[in-house]
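request received
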Amino acid sequence: MADGSDPWTVWLKQHGAALVLLARQWVASQADAEDVVQDAFVRCWKARERIQDPLAYLYASVRHCALDWLRARGRQERRETAAARSEFEPLLAAPAEAEERRMAIERALRDLPESQAEVVVMKIWGGLTMAQIAAALETSTNTVSSRYRYAIAKLRQQLVEEPIG
Amino acid sequence: MNELDEFEKELAAMRPPEPSWQLRERIAARLVESAAPSGMPGRNTRRLRWAMLGGALAASVAAGALWLASKEQGAQPTVALNETRWVLIFDESLPSVWSFRSAARASESIDDLLDRHAVDNRSPRGLTGHVAAFMPLGRSMALFDVEL
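response:
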């Protein structure tokens, strides 16, 4: 079934990594984030013919499912999960020579406010347009654009002393 | 805005890790499960059916209660109300709204009535005479001319 020939597998191949990265903004571990993505993906795939922009809806679904997941956990558990957020489960992959840089980028990304980090993830790794991000976040394109600008400026400022590459 | 600068390209070059193959398998299983026509209804369908059943049951109970209430109410002995018979007694010798309204249909009638009342309620000084409520047309016009 999942042999790569089904249309949904193309979707998953193109966006799976970015969707899991988006979910990990709220869900610490990769495994839990994949659970979130699974729920969102199935929900979105079943409704894809009824919705105007399936891709924006897919990212919005992952966001909603992740927030639901977070709400379902108690405050204590969330605190423990956040504390135990593993450095061994990197958000991004990089060649060995760029490991330091990757870690610096991850730290900077985690320091961003949620509203800015989600825009960066959708734009940089999801490849969504500003209009699609605005649709996913149910806000205006101008708001999304300004959040993105602020986020990139913060990331750049935080990483300015780090060597590129 | 769609063009990425060097810094954004550097970020984009660091790809997030690919999801595990188990995720793909689990999604495939879920999609197959949801697509297959199954004898077992989905959770939402079951909830809807239970809700409909509950609603129908509640409506039946309410209807039964109403029917019983109306039946009990019908079986109760009716309270015999004392019907008060109002008898209107008018003494036409007295001036009243009723008598004047009846008499007002004709000028002669009201004149007679006024005369009768005048006679009945004669003043101590013995003032009597014809009291006309409505002056004949010729006299009233003559009076009108004189006054002008």
